[in-house]
Each structure stands twice: as structure tokens, then as C-alpha cells.
TrEMBL record:
Record-listed E.C. numbers: 2.7.7.65
Cellular component annotations (GO), alphabetically ordered: plasma membrane
Record keyword Hydrolase present: no
Name assigned to this protein: diguanylate cyclase
PANTHER family linked: DIGUANYLATE CYCLASE DGCM-RELATED, REGULATORY COMPONENTS OF SENSORY TRANSDUCTION SYSTEM
Organism: Allopseudospirillum japonicum
Keywords for the protein's UniProt record, in alphabetical order: Coiled coil
Pfam families: GGDEF (PF00990)
Lineage, broadest ranks: Bacteria, Pseudomonadati, Pseudomonadota, Gammaproteobacteria, Oceanospirillales
Length: 258
């Protein structure tokens, strides 16, 4: 009769010591030995069940994490363009603002608005407009650096976040975007003589420095965008406190806008 416990089992030290003692004592006690074998058999089956449950629980935990990741992605992604949606863009802005607060990095925000986009919808239909928005998103992704972010801010309005960038550098990025969109041609169909969709952009630029209020910076970018629209579109305007205010004031008193 063996006095060794099954080897492939995982016992706690206390259980192992007691079982081992009982096994040795049961050598001359048939009844005790039978009870002990029964208990060890139960223990083996229980341990296998626990093992199975723990593997299932590991797998479920992995699946829950993956579902959470997919859910997070779904609520922060714009389904048409695949860019961040407004909520995703705000989260990215807030993260960048708090990062900037810890150092002196700062970043620039660009608000982009397509010019006379309504004409594309009105002339070629909403699906053509959607197609054009998708191509705009592709164009943004191609033009920007890996660590820049872009999101769909509203219907035909986009936001670009340029970390560690000053206003001069942001102006260069804006020029690159203006040119890329100006040159973008989106064929409406494969048919010969089908018209190409095209459009221009207006951009407002503002800079966030450590300690700034994010909403105020966004409002500044919006004012600069308003200026870009009113000064002829297809251009970028940078928010500079005095000049922008003066220009907006002048627009307010202009006979065409007052
Ligand atoms: N196809 C499509 N159109 C959209 C979507 N969201 C907004 N729009 C359209 O975008 C157009 C915006 O029109 P407006 O606000 O007048 O702006 P605009 O024509 O671009 O003129 P400006 O901004 O002044 O240059 C409207 O026709 C909206 O219907 C969308 O998801 N898909």
C-alpha cells in the first residue's frame, strides 16, 4: 500500500502535511485508509474543477477587457471618417492640457471648417458629401505626424491637435493642410466625364500654454476661424489677442456683416 500522496496535485502546505500524516497512520487501519482514499479522490476532482473554473475566469476576464477596449473605441470614434469624434477629441485635448500643465510643452489647436460644403450636398447629394468627408479625413491622416491628433468636431468641422508645437510651426502645418485640401479631387463615380468633388478649407489656430483654460483656447481658435471665413476663406488665421479682437471689431462694423 503506497504512503505517498498523488504527485500531480497542488496542496497547500498545511493540507499536504496532514494528509501525509494520515496516510502513514492508515497503514494498519483498513477503515481509515478507505475513508482517506475517498477523501483524496474527492479532493482530486475538486481541484480539477477549480482549475477549469480558473481557466474559464481568466478567459472571461480577457474577453471583458477586449470588449471594454472596443466599447471605448466605439464611443470615441466617428463612424463615418474613423477619426476621433468630438468626445474623443475632447478627451485627447484634456489629456494633452494636463500633460502640458506638468511641463512647459504646450500645444496648438487648429479648427478646420470646409468652405461652402453645403453646395456639395445640395448639388450632388448627401452621399457624395459623406464620401468627400471620408476623403478629407484620409487627407488629414496623411498630412499629420504620428503623434498629432485629428477629430471630427461637428458636421463639416474638424479639429487638429499639434503637441509640442508653437504658432509658427502650426501655421506651416495649416498651410500644408490648406494646400492638400485645395488639390484634393474626389471622383464622384467611375464614369467618364463624372465631375470631381473639390472644396477649400478655413482654419483658426490658437495655442495652449501651461495653465491656460482649455475652453478659452478653443474659443480663441473659433474666433480665428470666424476671421478666416470672413476674410475670404481658403486660409488660416492665428489667434493673437489684440490683432484678432481688432479685426473682429472691424468686421462687426463692416456694412456687409453688421
Ligand atoms: N454629407 C454630409 N453633410 C453634412 C454632414 N454634417 C453636416 N453636413 C452638412 O454640412 C453643411 C454645412 O453647411 P453650412 O454650415 O452652411 O456651411 P458651408 O456650406 O460649409 O459654408 P461656410 O462654412 O460658411 O463656408 C450642411 O449642408 C450640412 O447638412 C454629414 O455628416 N454628411
Amino acid at each position: 500500500m503506497s504512503t505517498k500522496l498523488p504527485k500531480d496535485m497542488r496542496y497547500t502546505q498545511a493540507i499536504e502535511a496532514r494528509l501525509q500524516r494520515l496516510l502513514e497512520r492508515s497503514q494498519h487501519d483498513e477503515e481509515l485508509r478507505e475513508d482517506l482514499d475517498w477523501l483524496i479522490g474527492k479532493y482530486v476532482r475538486l481541484e480539477r474543477k477549480l482549475d477549469k473554473i480558473s481557466r474559464i475566469s481568466d478567459r472571461l476576464q480577457g474577453e471583458v477587457l477586449e470588449l471594454n477596449r472596443q466599447l471605448r473605441q466605439a464611443v470615441t470614434t466617428d463612424h463615418l471618417t474613423g477619426l476621433l469624434n468630438r468626445r474623443g477629441a475632447v478627451e485627447r485635448l484634456e489629456a494633452e492640457a494636463s500633460r502640458a500643465g506638468r511641463g512647459d510643452l504646450g500645444f496648438c489647436v487648429l479648427l478646420l471648417d470646409l468652405d461652402h460644403f453645403k453646395r456639395i450636398n445640395d448639388t450632388y447629394g448627401h452621399d457624395a458629401g459623406d464620401l468627400f468627408l471620408e476623403k478629407i479625413a484620409e487627407c488629414l491622416r496623411t498630412c499629420l505626424r504620428q503623434y498629432d491628433s485629428s477629430g471630427r468636431w461637428g458636421g463639416e468641422e474638424f479639429l487638429v491637435l499639434l503637441p509640442g508645437t508653437n504658432l509658427q510651426q502650426a501655421q506651416l502645418v495649416a498651410d500644408k493642410l490648406l494646400q492638400a485640401i485645395r488639390q484634393l479631387r474626389v471622383p464622384l463615380s467611375q464614369q467618364k466625364n463624372a465631375p470631381d468633388l473639390h472644396c477649400t478649407l478655413s482654419i483658426g489656430i490658437a495655442r495652449f500654454n501651461a495653465g491656460d483654460n482649455l475652453n478659452q483656447v478653443l474659443a480663441c481658435a473659433d474666433q480665428a476661424l470666424y476671421l478666416a471665413k470672413n476674410q475670404g476663406r481658403d486660409q488660416a488665421q492665428t489667434f493673437c489677442p489684440q490683432q484678432t479682437q481688432q479685426a473682429l471689431e472691424a468686421l462687426r462694423h463692416h456694412p456687409c456683416t453688421s
